[in-house]
Automatic annotation (TrEMBL):
Zn(2+) binds at residues 78, 96, 145. Residues 24-149 form the VOC domain. Its cofactor is Zn(2+). One of its GO terms (biological process) is methylglyoxal catabolic process to D-lactate via S-lactoyl-glutathione. Belongs to the glyoxalase I family. Pathway: Secondary metabolite metabolism; methylglyoxal degradation; (R)-lactate from methylglyoxal: step 1/2. The lineage of its organism: Eukaryota, Viridiplantae, Streptophyta, Embryophyta, Tracheophyta. This is lactoylglutathione lyase. Binds 1 zinc ion per subunit. In the homodimer, two zinc ions are bound between subunits. It catalyses: (R)-S-lactoylglutathione = methylglyoxal + glutathione. The active site is at 145 (proton donor/acceptor). It comes from Aegilops tauschii subsp. strangulata (Goatgrass).
């Protein structure tokens, strides 16, 4: 569904925009209770790569960046572990990340056979459509939508946030990212 400034544009024009625009999201930061457990989940279940990791003992935290390609060309997840904190409240505003994959059924089986993540929605067509999706939950409770799509250079393809006023949120993001 086209909204905001895309509402009057053709599908071709909307699809052409990413080829012309050089701005992009770099990474999303969130906190985890056990960094090594989460790295294992993302690398073994989702196929991400550990891009870099740094410990900052004077500030009592460790960061790890994971993704599907180099940070200079791909979106990454920045996981932060704060010393001594093993659990966080995710809150009501965060929805999920989405990962595009050519075979969601196979990816779901990989996740089910692991001991670090779980499938919370079995693979199948989205309600009212034909796109195959599934949902997985990481050890900290963060959700990942698995979307069946053809090959893509950017598998980590969406971040879903819940907003109280959709029109206001659209105007905000259009101004920030244009």
């Amino acid at each position: 569904m086209a909204t905001g400034s895309d509402a009057g544009k053709s599908a071709e024009a909307v699809l052409e925009w990413p080829k012309q625009d050089k701005k992009r999201m770099l990474h999303a930061v969130y906190r985890v209770g056990d960094l090594d457990r989460t790295i294992k989940c993302y690398t073994e279940c989702f196929g991400m790569k550990l891009l870099r990791k740094r410990d900052v003992p004077e500030e009592k935290y460790t960061n790890a960046f994971l993704g599907y390609g180099p940070e200079d060309t791909n979106f990454a997840l920045e996981l932060t572990y704060n010393y001594g904190v093993d659990k966080y409240d995710i809150g009501a505003g965060f929805g999920h990340f989405a990962i595009a994959n050519e075979d969601v059924y196979k990816l779901s089986e990989t996740i089910k056979s692991s001991d670090c993540c779980k499938i919370t929605r079995e693979p199948g067509p989205v309600k009212g459509g034909s796109t195959v999706i599934a949902f997985a939950q990481d050890p900290d409770g963060y959700m990942f939508e698995l979307i069946q799509r053809g090959p893509t250079p950017e598998p980590l393809c969406q971040v879903m946030l819940r907003v109280g006023d959709l029109d206001r949120a659209i105007m905000f993001y259009e101004k920030v990212f244009l």
